[in-house]
Amino acid sequence: MVSTIDGQMHHFNNVGLYDALFVMQDTETKTLWNHITGEALYGPLVGRTLGPVGNVLQMNVKQALVLDGDLRAAISDRAYFAGGRQFGTAPAIGSGRGPAPGRGGAPGGAAAGRGPGPGRGGAGPNPDAALSEMFVQTLGQEDTRRPRMDMGLGVWTGSTRRYYPMELIRQRGEALIDEIEGRKVLVYVDPDTFTPAAVFVNSATARLQNKEVRLDNGQVLQGGVLFLRGGRRVEVERPQQVFTRWYGFALTFPGADVFGQ
Amino acid sequence: MDKGHLSVRRRLARYVAGAFAIALIAAFSSGLVAQFRESKPVELPNGPAKPGFDISRFSGAGNGWFETFYVKDTESLRDVLKAGRVAEDTRLLVAHTVGGRLAFVTDQMAYHHLAQGSAGGKDWLVSF
Question: How far B105 CA lies from chain A's nearest CA (Å)?
Fold first, then answer.
C-alpha cells in the first residue's frame, strides 16, 4: 500500500476490530482503514484508498534468496528466534512467553495458530478453532457457504474475488489450474512453507512431485520460482492474494466466488 | 514415531501457525486475550462512513497493543544470513511495495502488524 495521501505521508496504527479483522487508523485525520484492501472505511478520507495493494508472500530465507539474490531485509529490535538463537532486544508484550507478542494471543497475529487454531497439534488447521466473543461482536452478516473458520487462499484481481478452500486444494493433489478472467492460474500449496499461493501460468494441468509443481508446458515451479524446461528462470505474475479464514475473506469481499462450489 | 516424521510435523505446525498470521484475522481464546493490558480509547471522527460500514460494530479492542515498525534502514538479506541472524528456514514475509521487494521476519511482524517506510521517494505501508 501507499501511505502518501495528498502528497503527505500518513502514519498508521492498528486501533481495533471490525468484522473480526484489524482496522487501521491514520494519526493525521483519524480515518479508519481496511488493512486488506486499503479502503477508507470511516472518516474524512472515505472514498480514498491506499492502493495499489502489493502482495505479502510467505517464504523462508532460502526461498527468498532464490527469488531475489539482492533482496533487502528490514529487521526491527523486537525479539525473534532464528537457528535456535534469540535475536533482538525489545520484549514481547503480554505474557512474555514468546519472542513475538502475537504468539501470546495478539489479535490477528500468529496467536491464531498458537491458540485454538491450527498448529497446536502439528497436524494442520484446526476446524474447531473459535473466535472469542470480543471478535464475534464485530462480525457482520456472515456467508455460510463455508464454515466460519475454514482456511483457504483468497484471490482478488480485476473483477474476480475467489476463495480456494485449503481442503479442496489438498484434494486436488495440492496443485490445480483454474481460470481467472481468461488467464490460467496455478493454485498450490507450497511444499516448503505449507501455505497456499497462486501464480499466473500458461498451462492446463499441474502436478506436485518431489516438492516441485510440474506444468504440462514443461515449466517447473520450485520454491515459488518458475523455470523453463531448460532451467532458465521466468518472471511470474501473481494475482493479489491472502491466506485467510473464510469469514475474513467473505466479509471483505461479499459475494466472492468459492472454487468448487 | 520416528524423528524425521516428528520433524516434519513440527515444521508443519510452525508454518501453518505462521500462515495464520498472514490471514490477518484473529482466532484466540478469551483466556489469552485476558493476558493483555487494556486497550486505549480510540479517537474517532464524526464520519462519514463508507456505504455499508456500521460504526456501531467497530471495537477498539487491541488499540495500543502493537507498535508500527517504521523502517529507517534495510540490509542485505544475504549478509544477514551470513551473519547468522537468520537461518535458511527462518520464516519471512516478502512484501511487494511501491519501493520494491522487502523482507520482514514473520515473528516480528506478528507483533508490529504494520510497517512503513520510504524507498526511491515513495512511501509504502505493509500490513500483516
Answer: 7
